[in-house]
């Protein structure tokens, strides 16, 4: 019987799915009694880290229920933002507070509700004050969570045109519709801080 126990143990250990008594009989030498071997094996595993358990009409080796916490694994799920979400976030960060219409004007395409909802869900943007213009459109601004995630003290610490070009994130080709002369570009960078005034 000890040898039969070893055989049943080996089969259960190597099997990914629970094994029926009929399957055990088919694998073991003729005349074996896997049902009896299971009874002995089950007693032997009592109080150990692994138990022999019945799963429907089959049998399997399973972790002891009180040790299940050891098998849990926590993973951080990283989600990539879509290109539309990245562009929308960048526009809000650099032009805040800005309305949906202003975002659409800069991007040149309509902003889907899902894109804005995703950024709101991530808590990287929030609703700002309503504009005192017809329709009183809502504005969007970046949150403390956005600044914290990117290691910024304030939105004024976002890289300017020169830094973005130096990092290779912007190409040096002229913008469509003509480039700014070097002096005007410098003035535009200096005036950039005005965008972040409250």
Main attributes of the structure:
3-stranded antiparallel beta sheet; alpha+beta; 12% strand; 9 helices; 198 residues; single chain
Could you outline the blueprint of secondary structure elements for this entry?
Elements: H1 2-14, E1 19-20, H2 21-27, H3 34-44, E2 50-55, E3 58-63, H4 83-95, E4 98-99, H5 100-107, H6 113-121, E5 125-127, E6 139-142, H7 144-149, H8 161-166, H9 182-190
Antiparallel strand pairs: 1-3, 2-3, 4-6, 5-6
Helix pairs in contact: 1-3, 4-6
Notes on the structure:
This protein is of the alpha+beta class and 198 residues long. The chain is built from 9 helices and 6 strands; from the N terminus they run H-E-H-H-E-E-H-E-H-H-E-E-H-H-H. Strand 2 and strand 3 form a beta hairpin. Helix 4 crosses helix 6.
Helicity, as a percent range? 40-55%
For the largest beta-sheet, the strand count, sense and barrel status come to: 3 strands, antiparallel
Could you tell me the number of beta strands?
6
Strand content: 5-15%
Broad structural category = alpha+beta
| Mean pLDDT across all amino acids | 80
Low-confidence stretches: 178-198
Order of helices and strands: HEHHEEHEHHEEHHH
Count of helical stretches: 9
Main β-sheet, spatial strand arrangement:
1-3-2
- The value of Rg in angstroms is 32 Å
Report, as a whole number of angstroms, the end-to-end distance: 83 Å
Shape: rod-shaped
